[in-house]
Amino acid sequence: MYTQCNHCNAIFRVTMKELTAAQGLLRCGECDNIFDAMKNLSQTLPEERRFAQKLVKMAPVEIQEPTTIEHTTPKSKRLPQDLKHKLSNARYFISIIVGILALLLLLQVLYSNRHWLAQQPITSPIIRQLCTLVDCDITPYRDIRKIRLLSRNVYSHPNTPKVLTISASIQNEATFPQPYPLIEISFLDKNNKVLALRRFPPEEYLQNSKGKLMSTGIPDELLLNITDPGDEAIRFQFRFM
Question: Which residue ranges does UniProt annotate as crossing the membrane (predicted)?
Fold first, then answer.
């Protein structure tokens, strides 16, 4: 025999023994609704139609736990195999698209932060290799604290009056090549007041300085010219920037 849930129309196969034990009240395995199985009881399985309701008047009963019976899914509720296949393919392609978008987002983040990542010991090799493959520029890592002033001297320019020539030797003591610094030279009086100041970018004290890096452990000899600040200047100092 068959009966049907009056809430979700799910169809169930039942026996008279089960109905008698449950006093006609069953719990739907689909929607968890408690219904009177006797009202829609039939000897045959419906073919895409609803059961004709049979009015069976029964006295109300108090039950503790209605019997949950095995659910027989009608053909009309089953998804066709080709539809299941299409849904599976759709989920597969959506997963691929999401993965591609996540990869593009990661690459964008890496590209935007490539200069900072290239200066970190852990990520530097990977970022530099990636930039070599895609031909992107990276600002070289620099540490001004590792540039040392080995010697310095100042004297009057031999051919130009009121111009001083400063000779200096600087060296990169870092473990990596780095860009040449901006050199600031200032002249001070006896009260440490700055009388003259000039900053020299690499292109002013190097030949073919574009893209050139300071080698490690090799001194660089420099000659810098600056206007003579006068007799009040008693000392000068270097600063790397």
Answer: 92-111
- Which portions of the chain are predicted below pLDDT 70? 46-79, 119, 121
Q: Using alpha carbons only, give the angle 184, 187, 193 rounded to the nearest 5 degrees.
A: 110
Instruction: Give residues with Cβ within 8 angstroms of 21, minimum separation 6.
Output: 67
SS3 per residue for 141-158:
CCCHHHEEEEEEEEEECC
> What is residue 51's predicted lDDT score, i.e. its pLDDT?
42
Residue 46: its pLDDT value, please? 59
User: Which structural domain range is residue 184 located in?
Assistant: 144-240
Total structural domains within the chain: 3
